[in-house]
């Protein structure tokens, strides 16, 4: 009887140590704070492989010359990294109704996607979403804050 219990304890210990080694091995492959910028990020935080956020005029979704210049640079980054997929996030300032701003944010994101497609970026690499006025970068209620919030930013969805 004693040998049987010793065998059970031995097998239990062996399987526990085997499981803990597997976990440790898998954990070593997870992103850490040191390499988080390499695996995810967005352009608002500056952690999107150099992709830059663009801004829009009030109540507009047409691209300014400055926005086009930034988007050309963003397109080059995407061409240099052909496996990267992004999400274009359309945003508005806090004025206007919820439904109106959702629609305007979507138009902004789609105008960016179209421009990137014209630059040779495959459409299946770019998804779009509108947050309307839900994700402000500046909650102040003045022209400077409104201008910061009228934007399209870029989030890395896969590498």
Summary of the model, kept short:
By secondary structure, the chain is of the alpha+beta class.
Summary tags:
alpha+beta; four-stranded mixed β-sheet; 15% strand; 4 strands; 5 helices
Topology overview:
Layout lengths: L1 H26 L8 H4 L14 E2 L9 H16 L4 E7 L6 H21 L7 E7 L10 H7 L1 E8 L1
Parallel strand pairs: 2-3
Antiparallel strand pairs: 1-4, 2-4
Please describe what this structure looks like.
- This protein is an alpha+beta fold and 159 residues long.
- The chain has a domain at 60-133 and 148-159: 60s Ribosomal Protein L30, Chain: A (2-Layer Sandwich), CATH 3.30.1330.60.
- Helices cover 47% and strands 15% of the residues.
- It has helices at residues 2-27, 36-39, 65-80, 98-118, 143-149, and strands at residues 54-55, 85-91, 126-132, 151-158.
- The protein is globular.
- The protein starts with a helix and ends with a strand.
- Residues 5-39 have low confidence and may be disordered.
